[in-house]
Every structure is written in C-alpha cells, then in structure tokens.
Design a protein that fits this description.
Blueprint: H1 16-35, E1 39-40, E2 46-48, H2 49-52, E3 65-67, E4 73-76, H3 81-91, E5 97-106, E6 118-127, H4 132-148, E7 155-160, H5 169-176, H6 178-192, H7 197-208, H8 214-225, E8 235-237, E9 251-256, E10 267-271, H9 275-280, E11 286-291, H10 293-300
Parallel strand pairs: 1-5, 7-8
Antiparallel strand pairs: 2-4, 3-4, 5-6, 6-11, 7-9, 9-10, 10-11
Helix pairs in contact: 1-4, 4-8, 5-6, 6-7
Length: 301
C-alpha cells in the first residue's frame, strides 16, 4: 500500500462533511451581514512583511515571513484586519465603509485543539466613524449571526481597553490569561514581571472590581433599546477581559458559547482607531469582529 505524504504540522485537509457544514455556516453568517449592509471584499494572501510587522505586539513572532527570488521580504497574512487597513488607505472608499471578508490566515504557533497554523477567518468591520452606535451595531450584528447558526445561549463578554490605560503591557498580558491559568497563575506572572505578592493581589482585585466606562454604559443602553438585547443574557460586562492584540483602543468583546468565561472563545473583536491611520496618514476610526469558525464548528458538529 502506498503511503501518501503527510501535511505539515498545523495544516490539514478538510473532508466533504466538514466542508459542507462550513459552507452552510458561512452562508448563514454572510446572509445576515448583507442584511445589515456589509459588503464583501478580498485581499491577497501574501503581503509585504513590513505591511504586517509592528501591528501585533508580542504576537508578531507568529507571522510567517520569507524572502522571494527577487529578494523581497514577504509574509503570509496573519489576520484580515491589517490587510483591510491597507485596502482602505489604498482605495479611499466612501466612509463609513462596512465590509466583510472570508479568507485563509496563517500563524506559526503551537497547534492545539481548535487552533491551526492555517485557518479560515470571517471578519466584518465598520470603518470611518467613532460613534458608539457603530460599536453597538457590530456587537448586535455578531450576536444575531450566532443566533442564526444555532448558538442560542451564546453571550458576548464586553470591556473597554481604556480600563487598562494605567497598567503596563506586562500587567495587561498577565490579566488576559486569567481564564487560562487562574488567579494564582496571574499572580505568578505578575511576580515574574517584578511585582510584589501584595502588589500583584492588589492589581488583580482592582481589575476585578472595575466598573464599566461611560462609553460602555452608552453601548449597553443602545444594545438594549435599539437592538432589544438583554444584559447578562445576550451580553455582559467582563472587567478582566483584555484582548491580546495591541491595536485595540476602545471597546473589546469576545463571544462565548454560554455564560461561562472559561469556555473557548468562538469570536472576538473591538475598536481600533489608530491602525488604519498608520497607512492612510490620517485618523480613520474602525471597529470590527472576527468569527472563530473552527471552534464554533467543533461545537456544532
């Protein structure tokens, strides 16, 4: 019997049953997005390395970089957000520009359950307005999409990166691991960053007791009054949620399958008002969301 060559670690074939289910889920999501006037675009799988570098903080080390025969430094796209920023700076579309995109992205991380080195992202974003109504719109549309594909108990955890404005990046990264490593693990992380035991506990308690910002209170009100969503059922405030990417500037959010923050995240997003300006050389605010297709499909199948 001839043995076929294997796929590289972290890469995989997708069999017909899963491919069909993926297509069904994607079609339901994109149909809902188009009802809310989000339009599709596509961008290249490969970008110049300098386009991607300097945008992801410590996660930049996961970018797949290579040099082509002409000596050009290139990279496989890490996500669909930075290419969107380049797209907007290139074509200067009428704002607000509401788009969605489906495509393969690549990250050189250790594969584990629900995480691959190549995977499909489905993102939607609103570019060009800093109004909090747009944050609420993105959150509400994401919740609607999850309801359409059968996640009737899914809940959006919401926080504001401004709540961490007075903390160092090392502290924020430690807090971001709370649900993975527990409170003791967070304290250990803070100790390694130079904090005392008492200081580490004080930081943890301070974060846990944080209240919603004024912006979040406004967003919650819009979600309730405009979109008829219910607090602690459809969405909830989580003061310990940070989101790892450095480009977030305001509201941040993660979708969980149910009211259990320990569950794997099946979608996430937030406001990033400075990223597109890096390319456009002017202020262009934006807010968006990305579906974790592989994880949500594992739950559905």
């Amino acid at each position: 019997m001839i043995k076929a060559p294997p796929t590289p670690k972290g890469f995989r074939d997708i069999k017909p049953e899963l491919a069909k289910k993926r297509r069904e889920v994607i079609n339901k999501i994109t149909s809902t997005l188009e009802e809310f006037e989000f339009v599709p675009i596509e961008t290249p799988t490969i970008e110049f390395a300098d386009t991607l570098k300097g945008k992801y903080g410590e996660e930049e080390k996961l970018i797949y970089e290579f040099t082509d025969r002409g000596g050009r430094k290139l990279a496989l796209r890490y996500d669909l957000t930075v290419p969107l920023a380049r797209y907007v700076a290139t074509y200067n579309p009428t704002l607000p520009f509401r788009r969605y995109q489906i495509g393969q992205v690549f990250r050189g991380e250790n594969p584990q359950k629900g995480r691959w080195r190549e995977f499909t992202q489905l993102d939607f974003d609103s570019v060009g307005t800093s109004e909090l109504e747009e944050d609420a719109k993105v959150i509400a549309v994401a919740i609607q999409c999850f309801r359409q594909i059968g996640f009737n108990k899914a809940v959006m955890l919401i926080n504001d990166r401004k709540n961490f404005a007075n903390f160092s990046p090392e502290v924020a990264r430690a807090i971001d691991k709370l649900y993975k490593i527990g409170e003791d693990g967070v304290v250990e992380e803070l100790l390694r960053s130079g904090k005392s035991k008492a200081g580490s506990l004080e930081i943890l308690n301070q974060v846990k007791s944080t209240k919603p910002t004024e912006d979040l209170e406004k967003i919650f009100k819009i979600l309730r009054e405009t979109y008829n969503l219910k607090g602690d059922i459809d969405f909830t405030f989580d003061p310990t949620m940070v989101r790892g990417l450095d480009y977030y500037t305001g509201s941040i959010f993660e979708m969980k399958p149910a009211m259990n923050p320990d569950d794997l995240t099946i979608g996430s997003g937030g406001r990033y008002d400075n990223l597109i300006g890096m390319f456009a050389k002017k202020d262009i605010p934006a807010v968006g969301f990305s579906f974790g297709l592989d994880r949500l499909l594992e739950i559905l199948t």
